[in-house]
Amino acid sequence: MRSNIVHPGADKLRYEIREIVAVAKRVSVAGIPITWENIGDPVAKGEVPPAWIKKIIQDTTKEDLIFAYSPTKGLEETREYIARERNLEGGIQITAEDILFFNGLGDAISHLYRNLNPRARIIGPDPAYPTHSSSEAAHSDKPHITYRLDPENGWRPDLADMEQKIRANKDIAGIIIINPDNPTGFVYPQETIKSIVALAKKYKLFIISDEIYSNLAFEGSGMRKLASVIGSVPGIAMRGISKEFPWPGARCGWVEFYNRDKDKNFDAYAHSIVASKTLEVCSTTLPQRVLPKVMSDPRYYPYLAERTRRYEKKAVYAHEVLSKLPGLIVHKPQGAFYMTGVFKKGLLKKTQSLPVKVELKKFIDPYLAKASLDKRFVYYLLASTGICVVPLSSGFNSSVQGFRFLLLERDMEKFKKTIDTIAKAISDFAVS
Q1: Digit-coded pLDDT (tens) for 122-164
Q2: Which helix (H) or strand (E) holds 236?
Q3: Domain assignments of the chain as residue spans, ordered by start
Q4: Which fold has domain 10-47+301-431?
Q5: Spatial contact of 337 and 42, defined as CB atoms under 8 Å apart
Q6: CA triplet 149, 151, 154: central angle to 5 degrees?
Q7: Is the pTM here over 0.85, yes or no?
Q8: What is the DSSP string of 376-432?
Q9: Pairwise CA distance, residues 129 & 122, whole Å
């Protein structure tokens, strides 16, 4: 090409959660069955959407208008439903005009970062969710800035670290939290969110709260949404139906804008996001039409409660087994369907390995040449046992060494076998 057509931040776009799939498929060809513990798709892991939700969707497809465009911001009746439900929870009050629909939160994340001033930075958690961290890094063409989630303290955010980085980097314009968190399953206590809101107010920042798992918080977790404590600080909450219904293939998510009237610059930013969505005309109509019918059904929240009880049961077993390993830090999650193990410093070495077929050893060696220590373990685990987890360092832009796995397996005995195999692999790897 006579001109360089590649965006300067293109090399920042990484999504190891799916990149490892290509390696897993090669392992499968070698005759090793794959246990997929990498992608948080409930349906792919055997979660069958209830018949009554399917019936609502089927009946809705008979409506002619679901084949038409929706308004750019989303169906008015759906946005009004969400605003009413949001306002009943207390905290800041919104209207339908404060809600904007997207084709899933991946689409929303893309719009949020690409409409930021290239100099404006958003500080996010470490470990980070890669769609956020990669998009933020790509928009600025600089490494993503993170605050520390402390594995030695139940994954609570290090607020002193957060404030120090905000003070040191004047380009930081916003803070993102993921609540419940992916990959850790941590739920931010209300007092912690209040402290983050206070920091945002002190330094004139806005807050993004990714709440895609908010209705999958475990009972007793203390889950509170940003709207309950946002006060007068500008903010954006992000929600969707992918994990809840579950219907990830619907690609249906939305954002809620808070306090646009409190800051002209934030209002202009929000307007630019709406304008950029207008260029795409609208988001998909069918799931928007279905949403209030499903969420207002009296069976909906009991259905979610039954699912979270299953996830918590698996988390209890995994914690019981993995916490016995002397070289691993493990915390029981409080929401979503993810769990992490963190290797203590000094446990991992470049000389460690697991038994692997000769042909697979030759295949994975190039991946291991410059890999982080936790990625070495993850690839050896995959090639040796067929269990496909995700390394924290490269998979979640993290400074800590560890791995994430899922709590989605419906067969409890199969789940126990997976956890037991991981535990044995860690023990064998440590002494190899």
Answers
A1: 999 999 998 888 889 888 888 899 999 999 999 999 999 999 9
A2: strand 235-240
A3: 10-47+301-431, 51-295
A4: Aspartate Aminotransferase, domain 1 (3.90.1150)
A5: yes
A6: 90
A7: yes
A8: HHHHHHHHHH-EE-EEHHHHTT-SS-EEEEES--S-HHHHHHHHHHHHHHHHHHHH-
A9: 13
